[in-house]
Each structure stands twice: as structure tokens, then as C-alpha cells.
Amino acid sequence: MTYSWDFHSVWQYYDLFLWGLWISVVYTFGSIFFGIVIGLVTCAARLSSWKLLNVIARIYQEIFRCTPLLVQLLWFYYAFPLLVGGSMDNRVAALLTLALYVGAFYAEIFRGGIVSIDRGQHEAASAIGMSPGQSMRRIILPQALKRVLPSFINQSVIQFKNTSLVSVISVADLAYMAAVVNGQTYRPLESYTLMAGLYIAMLLPLTQAADWIERRLRVSD
Amino acid sequence: MNMTTNSTAAAPVIEAIGLQKNYGPLEVLKGLDLSLERGEVVALIGPSGSGKSTFIRCLNMMEIPTGGTIRFRQKRVGDRFRDKGEDIGIGTLRRHVGMVFQHFNLFPHKTVLENVTEGPIVVCKRPKAEARELAMDLLAQVGLGDKHAAYPAHLSGGQKQRVAIARALAMEPEVLLLDEVTSALDPELVGEVLAVIRGLADKGMTMAIVTHEMAFAADVASRVLFLDQGVIAESGSAEDVILNPQNPRLQGFVARFRG
Fold first, then answer.
1. Nearest residue to A77 (alpha-carbon basis) of A65, A63, A64, A94
2. How close, in Å, is residue B202 to chain A by CA atoms?
3. What's the pLDDT tens digit per position in B42-67?
4. Closest residue by Cα to residue B160 from B97, B110, B210
5. Topology (CATH level 3) of domain B3-258
6. A218 to chain B: which residues are within 8 Å by CB?
7. What H or E segment, with its residue span, contains residue B28?
């Protein structure tokens, strides 16, 4: 038996796919933005000499690194509101969870990059009279940034794919829309293949760009 | 020459008084004194673990001493980055006391020229054009004028160390601290770095040099200190310390290097 493909009937809902794709992009970049902020703060806390900050940052990181994102989404949407009383908007729950999740990983990536820079770099900066802040900004961070860029982009690519999980709390992203179209057309093969194709179309240029940037940054090595 | 200039000339640029450094129960420096006058070149020699690197690193507060005092231009160096009251800040001290490291520690993400201009521009806030001119001058002095656009990764060890010396000189330091600057170099590259240092000595640069190059120390240093187990075991002219050692441990040490 040969399956007769019919993308035409599915493509009639292209506006749903495009809208879903837009929502996925918004949640990706939104959560990456807040994730960077959370990651930087957590990283600073981890590197601080203040013990209490250290412990708090670690606890946060381990909770979010050691539970599945799906579990976190369900917990924030269904459980957290009961804990504090009141209800939570599913979009807020989705963005909050995605940002906290990726922030925990970013923090570890940033921290790893900073501590991987040779101690001698900081000493050389200090020896010409730089303050700790100047040394961090001008000498340590630029080198650390370059070193963490591949892992950072990698984590961000994963983050884009992870946004598909917000469909379980009814956020109308690309995965959610594909399910809607499938419901309308009874064409799962076409609906879900188109969805997969759109994810690839978004991420392939990104991973290629990442490789290109990485090669360009290697100039000084 | 009147009394005033006489006493200024004799006044030490940098002094260590009763300097101590412990790492937990381990006493690395057990109360060392050193006073460097302008134009003096002091070589510190001694077996590894004798504390000579720690000592020189205390002089610009790269290591914070656990006891004793560092004085720069007759003023006490405090424990903060900035000046406070009568005390000189660590930042101020380092701005005037340069250091060159065993492993160069050039900034790999910056070109040779940027490595040298970084201090003058960022720390001294000098105009970029002026800093560039000074840097090109210094690079020419260390024989690397044509390498200004290269990245450190493309240089040999000897070239890297000469850039590191230019980077330290760009701060126009009053004292230069050299911490085993030829120990990480291939033997055939040692000479080019030593030649640069000898040139600085001839120009009257005040230096403290930790080195294993006995012949070089004997040649360039006006004073040689032999450190052993955290104290200055012998000190004097190169002639006395290296060529005619009295202390038996020093005799053994020097003999091994004569080989």
C-alpha cells in the first residue's frame, strides 16, 4: 500500500503554523533573555566569596537541572498556584519555567568559562594596575565568552526545541498548532512532518551560523 | 651635591620590612628585609622552595604578606586597592611597579600592540595615539617592531617574553620585578631575553630579578641575595655571593649551577 501524501489540505492552515512558529520564537528568545539575566546573577553568586549566596545558587541550580522540564512546567502551572493561593496564567508559567530552567544551565556554562581562564591572566592584568573589575571586563570575560560560545549556542538550540513542551499547558506554540491542524484534517503524517520541517528550517541556519562564528573567533588562537 | 639631593638619591624606592608569608602552618617567608635604591639591580637566587618567587610577588602585593610591611616611596602600602589616608593603595603600587612572569601571561585575545597599550590606555587613561606611539617605540626596543599586529599565539617563547617586558615598560615603572622570566624558555631563546634585560640595567632601571642564570646574575646584578628556607641567608656583591660563597649551603647551590 502506498500512502498518498496530501500537504495541500494541511497547508491551508499555514497561518496557524506560522503563528505557532512565531509563538515558539517569542518564548525561545524571551526565555533566553531572562535566562541570561538569571544565569549571570547565579554565576556571580556561585563565584562570590559569600558562602550563603553560594549555597542558595547551588540549590536553585540543582533543583532545575535535576528535574525534567516537563515536570517543572506542570508543577509551576498546576501546583505552584495552590501553594501561594490564586491562579497563574499559563503563558506566565511557561515563560517563568523556561527561563528558570535555561538560567540554571547558563549559570554553569558561564561559571565554567570564567574559572577555565588561566590564573596568570588575572595576575597579568593586576600587575599593570587594573582593578578587579577592569580585569574581569577587559581580560577575563572576553576570553571566557569566546570559550563558552559553542556551549551557549548549543544550550540555546536545545531551548528552542524545549519550548515545544509548553503545548502541554495549552500555550499555542508550533507543536500545539500542529496538533490542532491534525485534529482538523486527520492528517498526522503531513501535520507533524511539516512541524518538524519548520523546526529544522529555524535551527539549521542557527547551528550553521554558530559554526561560522566559532571559526571566526579562532583567529587569535 | 647638597645634603637634600644626596638623601633623596639614597632613599629607597621600594622596601620590604620584616616580610612574612604563611600558607596555613607552612612558613614560606620568615621575616625578610630588602631595600631597593633607584638604579639598583638585585638578583635573588636560591633553591626551589626557598621563597624567592613568593618574596618578589609580595613586593607588588600579588601575594598579600601575612606579616611585615611593604613601603613604596617611603609610604606604607595598605591592603586596599585604592589609596587610603597615608597608605598607598595596591593599585597605585602596581601602576609604578611592573612585573614580568615566568609564563609570560600575555593576553591571547589581543594583538601584540594591544597587549602593550592596554595598561597605558585603560589604567593610566592616556590618549590612544600617544599610547600607540609609546608602544611601537618599546616594541622596537625589544626588537619586535614588525610583530605589532601579530597575536601572541603566533610568537616564539622568547618573543612572547619580550612583548611581556614591553607591556610592563609601557607603564613607565619605577621598579621592575622579574620572576624567573627565562625558566620557561627553550635554551636557545634565553639569550635574546637576557639581552633585553641587560639593556634595561644599563639604562638604570631598578630591578629585582629571580633567576637561575648564575652567570647572568653575576654579570648584571649590583647585589645578590641568597634565599634559603624563607630567610636571606647571604647577601652582597655578585663577586662575594656567587664567585666566593662562604655559606656552605650557598657553596653547594652555586657549585651545582657551575656544573
1. A94
2. 23
3. 999 999 889 999 999 999 999 999 99
4. B110
5. Rossmann fold (3.40.50)
6. none
7. strand B26-37
DSSP string across A155-209: HHHHHHHHGGGGGGGT---HHHHHHHHHHHH--HHHHHHHHHHHHHHHHHHHHHH
User: Cell numbers 622596537 correspond to what residue?
Assistant: B140
CA atoms of A35 and A88, how far apart (whole Å): 20
ipTM comes to 0.90
DSSP string, B234-259: EEE-HIIIIIS--SHHHHHHHHHHH-
Assigned CATH topology for domain A7-220: MetI-like fold (1.10.3720)
B186, amino acid identity:
D
A129 closest CA partner among B50, B164, B112, B171: B171
Partners of B41 in the β-ladder = B207
Nearest to A138 among B122, B152, B153 (CB): B122
Q: Among B160, B14, B29, B186, which Cα is nearest to B100's?
A: B160
Annotated domain spans of chain B: 3-258
Cβ-Cβ pairs closer than 8 A, A with B, add up to 69
Task: Provide the β-strand partners of residue B231.
Answer: B228
Q: Of the candidates B48, B68, B56, B55, which has an alpha carbon nearest to the alpha carbon of residue B98?
A: B56
- pLDDT (tens digit per residue) in A195-219: 999 999 999 998 898 888 888 877 6
Assign B76 a pLDDT band (cuts: 50, 70, 90). very high
Cα–Cα dist A120/A150, whole Å: 24
Q: B115 CB contacts (<8 Å, ≥6 apart)?
A: B106, B107, B152, B163, B164, B167
B237–chain A nearest CA distance, Å: 29
Average pLDDT, chain A: 93
| Domains in chain A: boundaries | 7-220
Task: Assign 3-state DSSP to chain B and report helix, strand, coil percentages, each to 5.
Answer: 40, 25, 30
CB B44 within 8 A of CB B52: yes
User: What does the alpha-carbon distance between residue B253 and residue B212 come to, in Å, rounded to a whole number?
Assistant: 10
